[in-house]
Write a structure and sequence with these properties.
By secondary structure, the chain is of the alpha+beta class. The protein has a single domain, classed as Lipocalin (Beta Barrel). 16% of the residues lie in helices and 53% in strands. It has an eight-stranded antiparallel β-barrel with strand order 1-2-3-5-6-7-8-9. This is DUF2147 domain-containing protein.
């Protein structure tokens, strides 16, 4: 049993770079809905994600450059995490592709909040 677990972990480690090289489904232009609760009006902001062959992420979110982002796929689940900065400090953002949208969250250190959000590809209506 232990041998199987180790073999599976080694297989996943080699599969992740291959995933990034074939193109990540989280790459692209997204429209993020940052409304604080479901009854609030939509609060839409752009997010652009580019996943490199090594799993690194570049792009922008909320008009700020992405810093030190990573993407991976484990068991067919495409996920990512990155940080951005503004005058209040760091924002830590992560998300996973669920169907045709991203379900994510952002934690602001400086403003002391955690916000769950969803995103659809730019040009797709909600």
């Amino acid at each position: 049993m232990r041998t199987l677990k180790v073999a599976t972990m080694i297989g996943l480690a080699f599969a992740m770079p291959a995933f990034a090289q074939t193109g990540s489904p989280v790459s692209g232009e997204w429209t993020v809905d940052l409304r604080p609760d479901p009854n609030a009006p939509a609060y839409l902001k752009p997010m652009v994600i580019a996943v490199g062959s090594d799993g690194s992420i570049t792009g922008t979110f909320y008009d700020h450059a992405i810093d030190k982002g990573r993407a991976s796929a484990v068991s067919g689940r495409a996920c990512f995490a990155f940080r951005t900065f503004d005058d209040s400090g760091a924002y830590h953002t992560s998300g996973c592709l669920v169907g045709d949208q991203i379900e994510g969250q952002t934690w602001s250190e400086g403003r002391n909040f955690l916000l769950a959000w969803t995103a659809v590809r730019r040009g797709v209506s909600r």
